[in-house]
């Protein structure tokens, strides 16, 4: 005798994996710079607030590239040589660990060879660009504003503390 098919159950069994749901968060303050947002969270911490329930979120992100100067083949070779020297120093240190020879000679040879090859590769890499990027720069990610958020359950406590800190700062 066959048993009739059982209806599917939508109730999870205890053996199913449990997934933690994200907690609701509330923005309690906004700042124009990161240092101010950091000070606010530090103030919360100093006053016993559970800061593990806090986040600083940067919004309105933009990429800023500051041009540092002109890049010539000579500068590219120098940058490559410096990188090569560091790499040679590292390799020289490793070789001295497993060698019975003079460690000074090994280090000196590794640094010189690393610097020479680094300089050559730096110059060749720059020459290969054909002048498409003849400048050096530093990029950074910057936010337009920083929001201090907390879990909804503790939002009122955080607002009271941040309001107190703002009042104290304004009334010195």
Task: Tell me what the structure shows.
The structure is a single chain. The protein has 172 residues and is of the alpha+beta class. The chain has helices at 34-46, 73-97, 103-128, 155-171; strands spanning 25-31, 54-59, 62-70, 135-142, 145-151. The N and C termini lie far apart (87 Å). The model has no long low-confidence stretch (mean pLDDT 88).
Shape: elongated
Low-confidence stretches: none
Q: What class do helices, strands and sheet pairing give?
A: alpha+beta
Mean pLDDT: 88
For this structure, the quaternary state is single chain
Sheet with the most strands?
3 strands, antiparallel
The separation of the N and C termini measures 87 Å
Rg calculated over all Cα atoms = 29 Å
* Count of DSSP strands: 5
Helix and strand run: EHEEHHEEH
Instruction: Give the fraction of residues assigned to helices.
Output: 40-55%
Strand content: 15-25%
Q: How are the strands of the biggest sheet laid out side by side?
A: 1-5-2
Provide a concise account of the structure shown.
The chain has four helices and five strands, in the order βαββααββα. It is an alpha+beta fold and 172 residues long. Helix 2 runs antiparallel to helix 3.
Task: Lay out the secondary structure.
Elements: E1 25-31, H1 34-46, E2 54-59, E3 62-70, H2 73-97, H3 103-128, E4 135-142, E5 145-151, H4 155-171
Helix pairs in contact: 2-3
